[in-house]
């Protein structure tokens, strides 16, 4: 496929970049950023990750790209004057191949980022193929002091059993529920997930928060953190200089 071939060149030709989306506590203070990959294709312009990540996942390219994102995001965060956290998404492919725990360890050493400031986001699909192996790898990563967040929570098939299999550090409520706050089903589901977080002593972050009405609901329900356009869009980190403690 043409895109696959082009993607191969993307890293070395510096077409990949990372944008950062702020994550805030419920009072509005920014506590960290999620790193999100962007590809500026030389002729086709911006290609969304929903298109190119699946292509990368068909080959060993995802390993290479995943390493690049992790290293870049950790290097970036290590340079922030304020010690905010950085969240990096992991592809299931990175669990199957590659030596994920060794990679994380060496990137932390190389960049000097404090392990407590790194959060790795995984989806349930990571746990589906080889649960034993994924849990063992995640355990090694956690032992480094890195946190693991369950992304897109509520959209997979058996979220609750996974919460029993592995000690996650955070749950990210999928934006599809947040979008439908106001409909009774979504409100009830969000309430239940927040309650689950309380019971399991896990912080809950709501994704895709766009309106003050949604924020008001999440505040009322004692959600811990929020992420979404209301707090800030994914942007180059230079746009968030003030948040990371740099002079503008
Ligand atoms: O930023 P955006 O909403 O376009 O991201 C779309 C999807 O791409 C999300 O599911 C997000 O998790 C995924 N994605 C973005 N950056 C990365 C990355 O660096 N690695 C992986 N594996 N997925 C990413
Ligand atoms: O799957 P994951 O949660 O990693 O991906 C986050 C995706 O959600 C990114 O593509 C990001 O651009 C998008 N996103 C972040 N905040 C909002 C929001 O408030 N509204 C919408 N519609 N999308 C958002
Ligand atoms: Mn994510
Ligand atoms: Na998500």
From TrEMBL:
The keyword Lipid metabolism does not apply. Keywords: Plasmid. The keyword Transferase does not apply. It comes from the Bacteria. Residues 1-248 form the EAL domain. Signal peptide: none annotated. This is EAL domain-containing protein. It comes from Sinorhizobium kummerowiae. The chain holds residues 323 to 570 of 601 of the full protein.
């Amino acid at each position: 496929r043409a895109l696959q071939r082009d993607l191969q060149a993307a890293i070395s030709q510096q077409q990949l970049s990372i944008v950062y989306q702020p994550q805030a506590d419920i009072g509005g203070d920014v506590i960290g950023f999620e790193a999100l990959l962007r590809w500026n294709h030389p002729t086709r312009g911006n290609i969304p990750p929903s298109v190119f990540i699946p292509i990368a996942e068909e080959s060993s390219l995802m390993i290479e790209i995943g390493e690049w994102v992790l290293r870049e995001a950790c290097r970036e965060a290590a340079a922030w004057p304020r010690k905010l956290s950085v969240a990096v998404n992991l592809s299931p492919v990175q669990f199957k191949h590659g030596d994920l725990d060794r990679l994380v360890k060496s990137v932390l050493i190389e960049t000097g980022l404090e392990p407590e400031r790194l959060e790795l986001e995984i989806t349930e699909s990571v746990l589906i193929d080889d649960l034993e192996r994924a849990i063992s790898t995640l355990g090694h990563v956690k032992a480094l002091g890195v946190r693991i967040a369950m992304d897109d929570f509520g959209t997979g098939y058996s979220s609750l059993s996974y919460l029993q299999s592995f000690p996650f550090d955070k749950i990210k409520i999928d934006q599809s529920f947040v979008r439908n706050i106001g409909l009774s089903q979504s409100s009830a589901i969000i309430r239940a997930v927040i309650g689950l977080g309380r019971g399991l002593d896990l912080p809950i972050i709501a994704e895709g928060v766009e309106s003050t009405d949604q924020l008001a609901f999440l505040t009322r329900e004692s959600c811990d953190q929020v992420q979404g356009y209301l707090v800030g869009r994914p942007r180059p980190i230079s746009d968030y200089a003030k948040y990371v403690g740099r002079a503008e």
